[in-house]
Structures
1.
Amino acid sequence: MYSVAGSDTTSTALTVIIWHLLANPKTMQKLTAEICENFNSAEAINYQALRALPYLHAVIEEERWLPNSSIKCDKAAFSPFSYGPRSCLGRNMAYMEMSLTLALLVFRLKLSFANHDNEIQAGFDVEDAFVAIKPSVPVTVKKVTA
Ligand code: HEM
């Protein structure tokens, strides 16, 4: 149970985030720019510094929470880790894993859909079956050259 709570949730969140970054190249560019402006090597990337980056935070939390977002929502209704004594024990770890993975990913690699139009047309749905069954996403990966 602990391994499902700790890995399926985070890997699903990361898969969905990466799909939407690939589907929205401007968002990917903004995130990449924020990471590359703040770190000059992959080794320098650390969670303490990542916590101060607003765009990375918005990518993880959904953009709609940026102060200048045109979508007005009540943040109090947003509770992906639940509330109260049985809320998620791994919340901080999940943010750390997601922040470090995304930052290192965009710093080191250039990702794109192998077939952009097909992906956009098909969309991305996660099927809930106790653990999430995710569709496969063919992606082209190139190493970033300085
Ligand atoms: C994006 C990532 C994650 C999300 C969205 C998430 C979400 C949640 C939610 C909504 C609950 C409450 C479930 C309920 O009320 O039945 C929960 C519980 C829990 N989560 Fe997470 N979680 C995430 C990552 C993690 C990680 C990384 C760990 C551990 C390393 C973890 C460990 C747990 C545990 C042990 C519980 C049960 C707490 C209890 O019942 O006292 N979670 N999580």
2.
Amino acid sequence: MSPSSSFHGRGRPFIHLIDCPGACGSFVMKHVSSTEDHPGWVYYRCPGHGNGCNFWHWEREYVAILVKKKFLTGANVVDAIGWSEDTREELERRNEQRRARAGFIRGPCSEERMNASLLQVGRQIVLLLKIVVGVGVLLCMMCLMLVMKLWYCND
Ligand SMILES: [Zn+2]
């Protein structure tokens, strides 16, 4: 299964490759990032980027540019924006999972869990104390009744 097929029911919309808005005379190229921070993220870049042109955008921003420049119209706008936002959310979710696995956000999470378990232990101790007190009171009353019974019998 390709990663894009799980993002959206209707699948990947057609994303145009436009002439660079910087008037470089060349088409924008589609690339897939392989950096540690953004693995699999799609971006669009002018071949002249870094050479006097600064056209470089992640897919979602590129779709927004297409919409703004009216390369996408009508229902295609809704489809492409919805799809690119779903895709971005999915990619960001994966990034978060990866960071969580790497232990970057381990601190607050485990602390919260520890507090919760401490609270649970506290509740169990309170429950145990209540049982002990209850049993103690019951024993005292039985002793008292026994003493009173003996008292009356001796009478
Ligand atoms: Zn350019």
3.
Amino acid sequence: MLLTDLAYPAAWRDEATAVAGALKRYDRYIVCGHAHLDGDALASVTAAGFLLRALGREFVLYSPYGVPAYLEFVERPASVYTSLARLPFTPQCVLALDLGTPSRLGDELGALLPSLACVNVDHHPGPGMGTVANMIRPEAAATAQLLASVIHASGADFTPAMASALMTGLITDTGGFRHSNTGLRGADIHAIRECLDKTWTIPRFRLWSRLSAKVSTAASGAVAICSCTLDDLGSTTTTQEDCEGFVERMLSLKGVRIAALLKEQDPGKTRFSLRAAGDSDVAAIAAVFGGGGHVKAAGGTIALPADEAENELLAAILRTDPKPL
Ligand SMILES: [Mn+2]
């Protein structure tokens, strides 16, 4: 897909126009993605901020956990608030991007949401939670792609800063365009790839080495599973951010249909990420533990130490009867 000018599906036009209209209707916005920002969520929040600024609106960018270090390079129109305690204004409307359920907003904004108008743009399947406008398009590769159509529909100039942010979202949500060919006017693809790829540290290498040695397989090689414990991080002086991408690496193993990476948060709480190849559906597995996501990429939390959580998760995966590719 080529994203230039108006080259987006005609079916999106009415919704993109409605969203653009809603962004002119209020004066003060909170712009947010899902609580733990990924490349697409940050890209969408960033581009939306640039758009609101172009439209002369006041806004804050909000994320309770801030911007992950590996995404720091993305140029932003304003700093990101990690708390709503001291906003510079009384907000009127939430612009919720790359998420479709209030539970993914985090507690603080989740509590505030019912008192505010909401505009929702997302590519996860679901009914949408916008009260003023919804643009929910699961066929989009990334929410960033939907934001591009909103910017066009608004009539605002499509600036290089917007284009670079949106391109970052497209790259991260498409696994570096392994699934589609995409271009976006004004974005420096080479510079963005350098920022995303040329980031390895020796501690991160050591962690991946350690995790690689711990990967085990099940179901005749159809399942790969691994736990990253607090000790793994401590021994290599790394953080959970250094695990980013490891579960995709596990999925690149020959024959593997489902890859699972568990990340111990504290001794009684373990987060997990699932990736699927072929026709496997990991959203259904995540749902067993109250998690969610896409058919091919999902996650959640299990209130157990890593080793016990791994057993529970593996049992749930094996119940889906995966066969090697
Ligand atoms: Mn996304």
4.
Amino acid sequence: MSLTIDPSDPLPLYHQIHEQLRRQIVSGVLKSGDSLPGESQICAETGVSRMTARQALVLLASERLVVRQRGRGTFVAPPEVVRIRKKDSLHPHNLKREKTSDERDELVFIIRELYGKNLITTTGGNLSLRLAGDSSQLWITPSSTFKGNLRPQDMLRIDLEGRKLDREAGPPSSEHQIHTEILKARPDLNAVIHTHAPWATLLVLTETPFLPISSEAAFIGEIPRVPFIMPGSLELAQAVTEALGETGSAVLMQNHGLVVAGTDLRRAASTSEVIERCAELILRCMLLGRQPPTLPEGAIRRLQKTGQMMA
Ligand SMILES: [Zn+2]
């Protein structure tokens, strides 16, 4: 068995190793009772740290696919357990990930990147992107699916009314109306990213302003907020779209998370990451008992003007 890692893949290294071992178990290459490579063997084969190797094995154990025995090693679980896990649709690791050569490849790349950065959680968060060839259609993430290992072919095509365009496809994200309402109202935007970004969510939970602590933060400006509205409802989608207005690019949802829209997916992903990072800095300052200093007024005004032109 040989394990490899790809440093350019945004999925964390431990997850890449976990994915390969998992695939070998569910495909039967590794059989019940077989011993898995130990931490030192994984380190030697892939060059990762011992902690990373351990994380991969712990993740497999948490899925009950393997049994770890102190002092003896890690072994593939009994066949009945492996059979159950193989059927688990939340983990389609036994299926091949294929490139589609359309927008879906970029969507999956960005999902893995945001998942690796903890902005989207296992099932929380969703992304969409307009089709380059038809602005009335979009690719969107599926409903209730493990976000750490989505494949391009898992993406769904819907129209701006939320109707599925491929008959055999499963249901789109339960929050798809946020995406369709924004893209309907804003023909200038092409991508929407909804994340459960922890620091950004903490910012809205603590009613802390998004302070202009850096040129990036000033560039984005204060982020409009909507009160708690039932997730998945049209009411929430309409409130977010209204808060975004004609020029906005981000909205915070109380007790929920963040929505960012952009002219393209990369820009929306970068804005999501900047908001999360700045929210973390602002809140960490406050946790240390300090009010963070902000940029001078004149600089803030100039940066916000530029921000509006580039949203
Ligand atoms: Zn959500």
